[in-house]
Design a protein that fits this description.
- Keywords: Aromatic hydrocarbons catabolism, Dioxygenase, Iron, Metal-binding, Oxidoreductase.
- InterPro entries: Glyas_Bleomycin-R_OHBP_Dase, Glyas_Fos-R_dOase_dom, VOC_core, Xdiol_ring_cleave_dOase_1/2.
- Pfam families: BphC_D1 (PF22632), Glyoxalase (PF00903).
- This protein is of the alpha+beta class.
- It has five helices and 18 strands.
- A ten-stranded mixed beta sheet has the order 17-10-11-12-9-13-16-15-14-18, with helices on one face. An eight-stranded mixed beta sheet has the order 2-3-4-1-5-8-7-6.
- It is globular and about 55 Å long.
Length: 303
């Protein structure tokens, strides 16, 4: 399967307007000018009509990651491959696909219950991105072909879920980490698989071994092109008294200089710059024992 990028995320929220304020005044995203004016919130950061869809719901969670296929032939082949693997999926109606601003769409779940959508024919509206916070641009590649950033999803069934993304959906391995949180030799620890799709971003997906995560997400990541924008955003977060989930630091495996903050939904948002862009030909997946070169001291906010 030839998945090209993380095209969009769909977030369910009891109060979408919280994301309107957070998305524009903290993250510096733009209200999507070509999306409907309804009870939902659509946020834009490049030439795509939107990247974040925050929809009214009676729960707060990440509902779907939308993964982009190259064309209709790739979309049809993906459905054939899912059928051959015995993976069930739901075909979205034309109306539902049009609402996502794509030409074809199916929905399914991974073995850990995370929702995903596979689509082809994502639109470009070319509406100029004008950040209310003055951000010149986010790193999403040419016409957004590197996707909005990355998602880290909880995986109660880590091994099975990792094999699903690798063997069924065609993701590639980038890196693996394993964490122990106590000196007890019997502590089994938790695994973390970093995975890439067919673009240069070091990872578009990571799977974290997590047995109980009602939010459906560990964190999302946005990447800006200027290191100063990371500092400006950090200043906005502190001024707004938004919980800082992790201090500023630089990761080992993807080189990202970033910090993490809480979102209105409760999962974290990584805001960073300078992430590696890889040449996957001949690449050997790595196993990393140190998550960051410096910084990134985590302090999860109380639920």
């Amino acid at each position: 399967m030839d998945i090209r990028s993380l095209g969009y995320v769909v977030i369910e929220s009891t109060e979408p307007q919280q994301w309107l304020d957070y998305g524009t005044n903290i993250l510096g995203l733009m209200v999507a000018p070509t999306m409907p004016n309804d009870d939902n919130v659509y946020l834009k950061l490049d030439s795509r009509p939107y990247r974040f869809a925050v929809v009214k719901s009676d729960v707060n969670k990440l509902a779907y990651c939308g993964w982009e296929l190259p064309d209709e032939a790739g979309f049809m082949a993906a459905k054939d491959e899912l059928n051959a693997a015995g993976v069930s999926f739901e075909e979205a109606s034309n109306t539902e696909a049009q609402a996502r601003r794509v030409r074809g769409l199916i929905r399914l779940q991974d073995p850990s219950g995370n929702g995903l959508e596979l689509f082809w024919g994502g639109e470009l509206d070319y509406a100029k991105f004008i950040s209310p916070m003055g951000i010149a641009g986010f790193e999403t590649g040419d016409n957004g072909n590197m996707g909005l950033g990355h998602a880290v999803l909880p995986a109660a069934k880590l091994v099975e879920t990792h094999l699903f993304y690798k063997n069924v959906l065609g993701f590639g391995d980038s890196d693996y980490m394993h964490f122990k949180f106590s000196p007890d030799p019997a502590d089994p620890g938790q695994g973390l698989n970093f995975m890439h799709v067919n673009n240069p971003r070091h990872h578009s997906l990571a799977l974290y071994e997590d047995q109980a995560n009602p939010l459906g997400c560990v964190h999302l990541m946005l990447e800006v092109k200027d290191v100063n924008e990371v500092g400006y955003c950090l200043d906005r977060v502190e001024a707004a008294e938004i919980p800082i989930v992790s201090t500023l630091g630089r990761h080992t495996n993807d080189n990202m200089l970033s910090f993490y903050m809480a979102t209105p939904t409760g999962f974290a948002m990584e805001f960073g710059t300078d992430g590696l862009q890889m040449d996957w030909e001949g690449f050997t997946p790595t196993v990393t024992s140190l998550p960051s070169l410096w910084g990134h001291k985590f302090n999860m906010p109380d639920a």
